[in-house]
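[Help] Beginner question about ligand-bound structures

Sorry if this is basic. My supervisor gave me a protein sequence and a SMILES string for zinc ion and asked me to "get the holo structure". I don't really know what that means in practice or what format the answer should be in. Inputs are pasted below exactly as I got them.
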Amino acid sequence: MFKNYIKITIIAVLVLTIIFEICHIVKMNIKPQEVTDEVVEATVVPEENNIPVVSGSTPDPQTETKTGQKIIVIDPGHGKPSSLMSDDEKHTYGWVQNTSGAWGEWRHYKKGSSVVNCEGSGCNGRVTPNGACWYPIGNGDRNTEPDINLQNALATKKHLEAMGYTVRLTRTSNDENPSITKRLSYCHPDNDASKAPDAEVFVCIHANASGGSGRGTAYITAEDPYDQAWIGAGYASQSNELGKLCNDYIADMTSLSLHGNGAIAWEPELIAFCKSPVPCGYLEVGFFDNSADLNILKTETDKIGEAIAKGVDQFCKTH
Ligand SMILES: [Zn+2]
Ligand SMILES: [Zn+2]
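Answer (accepted):
No worries, everyone starts somewhere. Holo just means with the ligand present. The predicted complex, written as structure tokens, is below.
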């Protein structure tokens, strides 16, 4: 009888221990789950509010505008690879889905518009060779280039601000990848493309690649016809003037040579040209896949920024 009592006690203790352990394990499983949810929420919420948050990490582009200062939009090309972006992120950064569900953006607005995408018709129809009005998001993915562009853009911003300009950057980190349409919205008050643009110019900063054989700095030329809203008759020639000014200063002030005669004439259908409401300078600063150029890009960033700023300043003072 006494032995049975001990047995029952031992079994009871074991059962209680097992129950306690189960409770503990359940608790442990619940806790990390709660933490995970909080983390997910913390990252998802800012992404959904991208515009204020992006401007929250830097001053709001609109509020930092000082009275009387001319506004320059500087666009560091590319950014976070599309494969690393969630659908929410793509949506927030201005990418859209076509009828097949693929992510990308439309190359044009309908003729005369600054808000209605062409969706394949009602535009100037200017497309890449063998291309289409649709631009798939993955076409903009790059590895080395985003940070080079960002550093050159930050240097340009510094020098333009010292010259008395207000500068809006279309991205401020390599963790962002706005669509070109979204980047161009910085030319307008409150990123509202239905309002008349308040920026003087839009400057795209890129670096080139050619499989190692190319060298030097270049700008891409615009070529009529363009038919988006807000642009004047001189849009293409002014865009080329702006690109040439910046590029010539880069060749003068840094160790980068001119690439050919400095002008790349075979990409007038770039989305930036097709949708910008203001003159658009499109720079391909050096070749990042050429070791000599890459070394210059990494060591002469400040001079590159100063050169671009001088080009922009000269353009603004003569228009
Ligand atoms: Zn189109
Ligand atoms: Zn590029």
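A couple of things worth pointing out: Strands lie at 71-76, 96-97, 103-106, 134-136, 166-169, 199-208, 217-220, 258-264, 280-287. Residues 107-108, 118, 120, 123, 133 surround zinc ion (ligand 1) (CB under 6 Å). Feel free to follow up in the thread.
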